[in-house]
Amino acid sequence: MINHEVYTRRSSETFPKQGHLAYKIAQMAVDPVEVPTESAEMIINRIIDNAAVSAASVARRPVTSARRQAQTRPLTGGSGVFGIDGTYAPEWAAWANGVAVRELDFHDTFLAADYSHPGDNIPALLAVGQRVGASGRDLIRGLATAYEVQVDLVRGICLHEHKIDHVAHLGPSAAAGLGTMLGLEIETIYQAIGQALHLTTATRQSRKGEISSWKAYAPAYAGKVAVEAVDRAMRGEGAPSPIWEGEDGVIAWLLGGPKARYTVPLPGPGEAKRGILDTYTKEHSAEYQSQAPIDLARRMRERVGDTAEIESIVLHTSHHTHYVIGTGSGDPQKFDPKASRETLDHSVMYIFAVALQDGDWDHELSYAPERAGRADTVELWQKISTVEDPEWTRRYHSADPKEKAFGARAVITLKNGDVIEDELAVADAHPLGARPFAREQYVGKFTRMADGVIDGAEQERFLAAVTDLATIPAGGLDALNLRVLDDVLASAPATGEGIL
């Protein structure tokens, strides 16, 4: 890996295009290096994972709204929309499928200086791949680039510190991945990356306070923007530049300011793209920092016994967990039994309480209004707080994957004065966890989520196709579309009439 120092440059300064971060990413995107077998296999796992969470979310209102928007743009020779027949404009297929993937907060993650869900790249690349008649190998190459760019930007540039939403790394990664898949020239990819970044920087309010369905839409929007940016760049249109380093650019005015410096690692020429191998998926439908606490609560449940006997619970954890999903956020909504699902899945206090009482976590039942409003849960929930522990923060940011941690230490004090303590560094499904996810677990997650949603024969057809992704010929990516049962689609809620 080559470490690139990125910082603001004055307009009067001589700063050749070849030094721009967007150009260096574009250079990496056109590198013809082969995708390692392990990376290609993990790409297949993540396509399966995205299909699983899309099946689980397909009848929910935000997903239904996005799907119905896409259906207003039918296009012969276009792209598939999850669950339905027909083909549609690729940017709108990317939009609809991106919302389906993101709605339940249930797919892959990467956490470093910032955080991300790299699987958000897949809908945009698959939609465009279907439109242009790409092959399975083309898609693999594109996704290897997209994952690599997003992982490397997340390693080097913290957006959250400046309250910029994490999809600001997604626009550039999707644009770069599309460039690789389509075999575009460096200059075209460079311009597309600049456009995509310029148009996908927004504040973190989408994940703060009373969280709305835009939490699911934001990554889908970034994917849609990336598709449109690549389309414009292919037609010869340009972007603001240098987009990161400009005197009025992203670093100077949205991030650390004119004096800030960031170090972004990127593979050198001929160096394989392995970034996807450092990412991990979710066993539970909840914000990633809740994954280990859910498993910890399940493990502690028998020792605790009757939760009515609990006096207090303190979760000692990292700065990020404390301030984003813990009491450090200062969000009273995180203790509101009538809060939205999106808010509840960003409340580790609620999540720990339910997991401790139920010994399980369900992507629907655990968030049901009647579950959130249960009197004994509300009482327990109010007794839970988080505190930042410097050691957990250090481990959260550690570059050593063997000590990197996203968990917590739980200190449960009972009314009789007894104290029960335990800790868990990583979720059970993490590569270093008790039950790491491999192909068997990805397929198992898909079949569980698809049960009663997708016909069994259709499930088998899809799994056979995606398993042999590398051999899918040009024009054959439609095999990755999935048809949902009619009665499931009919159960989707009515939505308001829009303009389109």
Brief description of this entry?
Pathway: Carbohydrate metabolism; tricarboxylic acid cycle; isocitrate from oxaloacetate: step 1/2; Organic acid metabolism; propanoate degradation. The chain is α+β, with helices and mostly antiparallel strands and 500 residues long.
Explain this structure:
It is a single chain. By secondary structure, the chain is an alpha+beta fold. It has helices spanning 21-30, 37-57, 61-70, 90-102, 121-132, 136-156, 170-182, 186-199, 214-234, 250-253, 291-304, 319-324, 341-344, 348-358, 369-372, 375-381, 390-397, 439-450, 456-467, 486-490; strands at residues 2-7, 74-79, 110-111, 115-116, 261-266, 310-317, 384-388, 408-414, 419-424. Helix content is 44%, strand content 10%. A hairpin with a 3-residue loop joins strand 3 (110-111) and strand 4 (115-116). Keywords: Lyase, Tricarboxylic acid cycle. It holds the Pfam family MmgE_PrpD_C. It is an enzyme of class 4 (lyase).
What's the arrangement of secondary structure elements?
Blueprint: E1 2-7, H1 21-30, H2 37-57, H3 61-70, E2 74-79, H4 90-102, E3 110-111, E4 115-116, H5 121-132, H6 136-156, H7 170-182, H8 186-199, H9 214-234, H10 250-253, E5 261-266, H11 291-304, E6 310-317, H12 319-324, H13 341-344, H14 348-358, H15 369-372, H16 375-381, E7 384-388, H17 390-397, E8 408-414, E9 419-424, H18 439-450, H19 456-467, H20 486-490
Parallel strand pairs: 6-7
Antiparallel strand pairs: 1-5, 3-4, 6-8, 8-9
Helix pairs in contact: 1-7, 1-8, 2-4, 2-6, 2-18, 3-4, 4-5, 4-9, 5-6, 5-7, 5-9, 6-7, 7-8, 7-9, 8-9, 11-14, 14-16
